[in-house]
Amino acid sequence: MTEEEFKQQLRNKGYGEPRTKEYAPNANEAQHTHDFSVLAMVTRGELTLAYEDGSTTYKPGECCELAAGTVHGEQAGANGATLLLGRK
Asked: How many CB atoms sit inside 10 A of residue 72's CB?
């Protein structure tokens, strides 16, 4: 998916304006939740989301959507990661 396609998807699904989030190499955020939903696309590097029942790794052009309250951890790859994301 391109960044423009992703931005259109954000608009179509009612997410706020896109913002960028950077992760340092091998950054590791412990399991947590958010009080908002997130739609994100990896634009650089890779990011693994760890859930209570497994994990999924996302690479450039791949998207994920997390509902508010979803328990997850975040682990950046060896080269870090950059995400384009929207919240609602």
From this structure: 20
